[in-house]
Design a protein that fits this description.
The complex is a heterodimer of chains A (about 475) and B (about 475). Chain A has about 475 residues and is of the alpha/beta class. Chain A contains 17 helices and 15 strands. The chains are: A alpha/beta (about 475), B alpha/beta (about 475).
Amino acid sequence: MPKLMTSLQEVNPRVRGIRLSPQSGLHSLAENITRDDIKGAPQPFKELIDVSSGDPQRAGMKPISFIRQVLAVCLCPELLSDEHLPLDVRLRALRLLEACDGESVGSYTTSSGLLYIRQTIAEFIMKRDEGVPACAENIFISSGAQRGLMVIIKLLSGGEGPRQTGVLIPQPCPHALLPLLDEAGVLAVPYRLIEDKNWAVDMSDLERALTTSRGRCEPRAIYISNPGNPTGHLQDRKSIEKVIEFVAAERLLLLIDEVYQDSVYAPNKEFISYKKVLFEMDKHLRDTVELVSFHSLSCASVAECGLRAGYMEVVNMDPGVMHFLDTMLCTDINAPVTGQLALDLMLGPPSPGDPSYNTFVHETLLTRATLAQNSQRALKLLNDLPGMSCRPAMAGIYLYPHLDLPAEIKEQAKTLGLEADVLYCQMLLEEEGLIIGAGDDGTSGSHHLRLCILVPPDTLGEVLSRLSSFHLHLADRKRNRIV
Amino acid sequence: MSVLKEISSNVRNIKQTECLVLFRRTNQIKEELRQGVKKPYREVIDVFWGDPHRAGLKPLSFVRQVLAACLYPQLMDGDKLMVDVKQRAQHLLRTCAGESVGSYSATAGIPQIVQSVSEYIVRRDGGVPCHPENIYISPGSQWALTNIFKVLVNSEASPRTGVLIPVPCHSTTIISLMTLGAVAVPYYLREEQSWALETEELQRALDSAKGVCNPVALYVINPGNPAGYVQSRKCIQEVIRFAAEKKLFLLADEVYQDCVHGKESEFVSYKRALGEIGAPLSDTVELASFHTVSKGLMGECGLRTGYVELVNLDPTVMKHIDNLFSTNSCPILGQFALDVMVNPPQPGAPSYPLYLKETQHIRALLAQNVRRVEEVINSFPGFSCQPLEGGAFAFPRVFLPPKAIERAKEAGLEPDTFYCMRLLEEAGVLFSPGSEYGQKEGTYHIRFCIMTPTDTMEEILKRLSVFHKQFMKEFS
């Protein structure tokens, strides 16, 4: 057959260099299993359960009724006159439709999102931060928070060799982060979080990472998630202040992923935004520290990952630079309008006295309670398993247990060219039909699992049952020297 | 001092569009009208975008009902919705993890919907086979196009990667190329021959790239945007042979394939034409073709969903593409709309009569608008419009008097932007200037969307007529 035109050599080296996330390997395996299942091949389990990603609705968590009702009316405006739907639902839908061009969710919007929605977001931020000013012009809506992050990273990217842009990232970090940096041609500079301190930020390791990176790259930003993804750590004010002082001294851009801000469940703990802390520090810091904070629909209480919308708020950014955010976002045209409207509903929920308020409160409290109870239950079970230990999480939707794997598994993994925790997850998938995320700690040498615990309690029960069954069986195998 | 002051040069070099002045003024005028300021018009008619809903067209009921039912399944209780709406919604919900539109979907899109799309493509192309593994559903066709560009464009190479693009071409594609550090190599469509694409011109463009960049791909738009041409089968086959000979990756932007109005015109997909040419070309020419839910009769631009079909790509290259596409998930609602687009209600289905009525209505008004636009615009002195064969726009040429060009220069604007500013100010109509899309030096054009209700179009033509007469008189 004649040679095809684009051989591997001609694929953009930047694209070739995007590392494959171990998640995708697991999902391909899962797809194969599903296909076999459809063909009637016998499986040792009833059906696949996937708790590897932050997708609560996948696992069966229910959406917020108010959001779904309003969106349905926006899609089908004849429902405006349907009296079975609460009045506040219909009024909100009317208001949102008026904010859309052509009064349709099918119209384009400006690249940074509908102004009306950005104003809602600004109001939410001001309320959350108890008066720290926020304005719509500093808010940019994107198709998911990752897309916004990509825009910022791309603005920073550039340079080759020792002049290549570097971004400090936590270890562990969300799965999608490393491929994102690869795609943008930016070097990832990992800094370790302290597992023994429930994954706290370690300023000395931040400094070490920064210092050792100079010469290899030009570090220009630091990424932090708070609450931590996947660790569940919640930073206190002091910790946040230390990070702010660090970025100010080192002139780094602060990229702060606050998507799980609504999911704090540890008793006596509260989320405080980086922006609020910044505004309560020295005037000099307040006026100069550049920070971009991210939030999205993929959060705990709303979990509308499939609607694809998030936003970023930029603080102290040069207006000349901000203009380019629009330019970069315009190649996506705009975030899906239904997602943009959902942001309004997420950040501007029903108020006391509104017809939908009680249902809304009930649903929100139920989710929060489920999360807290699941965390406690899963934590106990994980810590009871031999060779597994898990730090308590304060927030977020994951648990991130440490795995002490038997030497045989590590060796087998090495032979297969896999990380041992990835092999563990593959075996777990094949034997129990359970998909849990691998820790993906890269060079740290230790192994972890990441498991989404925002799932219906029954599902959690099934997850924990399958996991312990597999894990204990593994221990047995080790004992019987069969691997 | 901003940490970001050293922005990637690829981004920094993107020229700010002149249209920002038009948008700003539009918003101001709308605000002034709201506050009761007296103007010769009561509202601004915005036909800048290819956005039928913004222009006043209504969405198709079936798709909206299905989407609403998917969002809030309780709507399916009782008898308000037709049986086929419910069946489709239930079918679609079952394809989602957790039976919810709120969960992430697989990289390439929901498998059942990918399958529907591939079946649609086979039907459309008269049986030319289509493999579902070659299809990626994406958050809009531009997103998919940018991803393919990313694979093809080596931002670190010297000479830089080049992509041949038509003049005129819509601006988003050009911006994507620029942010990736690629060179856009223009080839000019021949306006006087209904915007024909001639291979001699492709050759000239290729020759012009020697020593400047390394062209790897040829981007074509069919049906056209902004120009309203529909390429003939013969033309498409010539382009394919050219691409094969010069080893260019073919990128076919076919988002307006459902908008064909010319009586002699027929949409033939590049894939079909390639299939009809036969081996060896049909097995070797690399082709990416793009489609979307934003255009056509559905016009659901805000849902952000499209797809790309990749043909004849090396399997190892596909692996990288797969990896690239896996970095983001396509909105579920948009995927559902795509399913409805490729699989609309059929005769006999309860929703069919309404669906038929609505689509026929849109086709009729489009035909009417095409007729009226061609008639009226061509009757204006100083205007000429090529036949509108397809697409969603009219892109007439306006012969601006030298005095107007002079005045534009003084104002620091492109002459056609100046014309559009005046049109906005004095007639309350927002068009986009030809300079936004590229045009032959010394020529000026304006673009406006023709997918509007018929009375809106009449109003546009009326206001344009009055304005144009005055403008030409003022600058004669």
